[in-house]
């Protein structure tokens, strides 16, 4: 297990009212596997994903990753882990509008502090774009890419620095059925070949076929 | 990766528009400042162009130089004791040409100094602005207070006083015109500690300028106009940089989510601010200097290097302040917030 959580809790306070979103979650992720979180809206699946990814703090519990305790780290230490060991695919591609597809990936390598030389980085980027079928569009800016192409570039950016964990928050929500299957096939293939532990939130039942493990959430707990 | 430059290259229209606004605001400030300084020079260039030193006038004159008359023995003693010191007088008056055309001037004379041109008796040296008005070397002028005539012997630059051209004349001619052998003022250069001279009051150049009836009131109004403009321009600068960066909060949040350091985002903001401000200011300075050269002589324009540098520094500081202010908002923005905002708008 590269990633585990113990008794994760999350409470949001609105004035005097406290709402418990996560009620003691124990989760473990394994390399080479896609774990899918499913559940109704408000069940807490996206909150769990963002806490696991270090994008927001838990109200209680522990998160362990690669021998370290994420919940005991400061913001800078978490940022470093996000940059070097985590990859993110969001519902929207969230590409940087003024960078080409190639530059999006080069920025990720630079942010992760890749030890590769400039030439090696370019080669790595070419290889990654080729693996997501976007090598022919490497000089294109996001504005000239289709929705599916943008999400492919976003996936390539998420894994170009060879993260150990990939977080995917409804990665196919903005795509049509054909493109959704293409993207999920790609995520499955990359998870296996690069031995990444992938945690995915989805509400599309069709996409569960690509997951190795499906966890259903209800009212802040695993059902 | 130079994110700042890449964004400016890709979104060049947005940055050109922002740069144009900064350019127009700074150009307006430079031009108004140049005109204000020009008026100031037009009022007192004769005194402003003096080197650092101390001006003395009679204490009994109560800071009105036209009423000052320095005792000749005191004058001789001060001039003897101080190298480079000289006595001088300034009186407003007028010149009449052979066709009875009248020209207002400030008559100035001195006991001999590097700052005032040497003039022979009967000759007159005028500010160059009068040459542009058609007066030529050798032209003859007279004055109702002088029996003899004045012959224009030449022209000199930067000799304006009380918005009139200065006419340098020989001390004997001055004495004949104003029926006095006594000079109004003494100038002692580079006196670190102005020494006390009995019966005389000492002034720095700036203090002396403030004794001129119209000068301080005029300068106060002009300074207020210029600094009011600088403050408004500065606020516009800061607001534009702030707005530009706040609009990109979502982008900065995503960059933070993937691990880009907040420091790198600050460098991006500062680089863009510096490039835009530098280009806009270079253009503004160039055009305002060009304006100074082509502006008609009736429109005094004077934008010296120190005033230009001062305004430039103010603009950079305010631009930096505006950019940093937005940077602080970006520092506060959480990656999650940015992602959720993006999702909502997607």
UniProtKB/TrEMBL annotation, chain A:
InterPro entries the record matches: AAA+_ATPase (IPR003593), ABC_transporter-like_ATP-bd (IPR003439), ABC_transporter-like_CS (IPR017871), ABC_transpr_LolD-like (IPR015854), MacB-like_ATP-bd (IPR017911), P-loop_NTPase (IPR027417)
GO terms, molecular function: ATP binding; ATP hydrolysis activity; transmembrane transporter activity
Keywords assigned: ATP-binding, Nucleotide-binding, Transport
Signal peptide bounds: none
GO CC term, one of those recorded: membrane protein complex
Keyword Membrane annotated: no
Presence of the UniProt keyword Nucleotide-binding in the record: yes
Domain ABC transporter: 3-223
Superkingdom of origin organism: Bacteria
PROSITE patterns: ABC_TRANSPORTER_1, ABC_TRANSPORTER_2
PANTHER family from the UniProt entry: IMPORT ATP-BINDING PROTEIN (PTHR24220)
Protein name: Hemin ABC transporter ATP-binding protein
From TrEMBL, chain B:
A Pfam family the protein falls into: FtsX
Alphabetical keyword list: Cell membrane, Membrane, Transmembrane, Transmembrane helix, Transport
InterPro entries according to UniProt: ABC-4/HrtB_transporter, ABC3_permease_C
Membrane topology: Multi-pass membrane protein
Domain of life: Bacteria
Boundaries of every ABC3 transporter permease C-terminal domain copy: 224-335
Cell compartments where the protein resides: Cell membrane
Bilayer-spanning residue ranges: 220-243, 264-287, 307-328
Entry GO CC: plasma membrane
Chain's role: Part of the ABC transporter complex hrt involved in hemin import. Responsible for the translocation of the substrate across the membrane.
Subunit structure, interactors included: The complex is composed of two ATP-binding proteins (HrtA), two transmembrane proteins (HrtB) and a solute-binding protein.
Family that this chain belongs to: Belongs to the ABC-4 integral membrane protein family. HrtB subfamily.
Protein name: Putative hemin transport system permease protein HrtB
Source organism (scientific name): Planococcus maitriensis
């Amino acid at each position: 297990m590269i990633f585990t959580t113990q008794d994760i809790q999350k409470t949001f306070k609105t004035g005097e009212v406290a709402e418990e979103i996560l009620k003691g979650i124990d989760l473990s992720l394994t390399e080479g596997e896609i774990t899918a979180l499913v559940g109704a809206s408000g069940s807490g699946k996206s909150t769990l994903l963002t806490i696991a990814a270090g994008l927001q703090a838990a109200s209680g519990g522990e998160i362990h990753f690669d021998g370290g305790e994420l919940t005991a780290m400061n913001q800078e230490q978490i940022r470093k882990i996000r940059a070097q060991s985590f990859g993110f695919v969001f519902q929207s591609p969230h590409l940087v509008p003024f960078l080409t597809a190639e530059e999006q990936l080069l920025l990720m390598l630079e942010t992760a502090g890749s030890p590769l030389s400039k030439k090696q980085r370019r080669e790595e980027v070419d290889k990654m774009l080729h693996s997501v079928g976007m090598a022919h569009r490497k000089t294109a800016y996001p504005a000239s890419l289709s929705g599916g192409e943008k999400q492919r570039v976003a996936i390539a950016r998420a894994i170009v620095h060879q993260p150990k964990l990939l977080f995917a928050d409804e990665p196919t929500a903005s795509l049509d059925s054909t493109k959704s299957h293409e993207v999920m096939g790609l995520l499955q293939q990359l998870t296996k070949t690069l031995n990444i532990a992938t945690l995915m939130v989805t509400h599309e039942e069709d996409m569960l076929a690509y997951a190795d493990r499906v966890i259903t959430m209800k009212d802040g707990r695993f059902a | 990766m130079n994110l700042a430059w890449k964004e400016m290259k890709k979104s060049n229209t947005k940055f050109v528009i922002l740069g144009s606004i900064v350019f127009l605001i700074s150009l307006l400030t430079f031009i108004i400042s140049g005109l204000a300084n020009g008026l100031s020079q037009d009022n007192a260039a004769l005194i402003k162009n003096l080197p650092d030193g101390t001006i003395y006038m009679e204490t009994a004159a109560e800071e009105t130089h036209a009423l000052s008359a320095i005792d000749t023995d005191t004058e001789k003693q001060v001039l003897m004791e101080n190298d480079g010191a000289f006595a001088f007088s300034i009186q407003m008056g007028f010149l009449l040409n052979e066709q009875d055309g009248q020209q207002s001037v400030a008559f100035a004379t001195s006991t001999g100094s590097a700052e005032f041109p040497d003039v022979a008796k009967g000759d007159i040296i005028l500010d160059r602005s009068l040459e542009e008005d058609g007066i030529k070397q050798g032209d003859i002028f007279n004055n109702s207070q002088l029996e003899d005539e004045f012959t224009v012997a030449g022209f000199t630059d930067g000799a304006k006083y009380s918005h009139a051209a200065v006419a340098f004349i020989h001390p004997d001619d001055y004495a004949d015109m104003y029926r006095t052998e006594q000079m109004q003022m003494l100038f002692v250069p580079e006196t670190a500690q102005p020494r006390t001279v009995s019966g005389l009051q000492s002034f720095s150049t700036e203090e002396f300028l403030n004794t001129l009836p119209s000068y301080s009131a005029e300068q106060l109004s002009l300074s207020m106009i210029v600094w009011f403009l600088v403050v408004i321009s500065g606020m516009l600068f800061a607001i534009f940089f702030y707005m530009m960066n706040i609009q990109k909060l979502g982008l900065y949040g995503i960059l933070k989510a993937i691990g880009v350091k907040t420091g790198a985002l600050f460098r991006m903001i500062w680089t863009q601010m510096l490039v835009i401000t530098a280009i806009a200011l270079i253009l503004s300075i160039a055009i305002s200097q060009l304006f100074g050269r082509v502006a008609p002589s009736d429109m005094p324009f004077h934008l010296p290097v120190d005033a230009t540098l001062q305004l430039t520094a103010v603009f950079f500081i305010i631009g930096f302040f505006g950019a940093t202010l937005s940077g602080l908002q970006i520092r506060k923005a959480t990656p999650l917030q940015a992602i959720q905002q993006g999702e909502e708008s997607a």
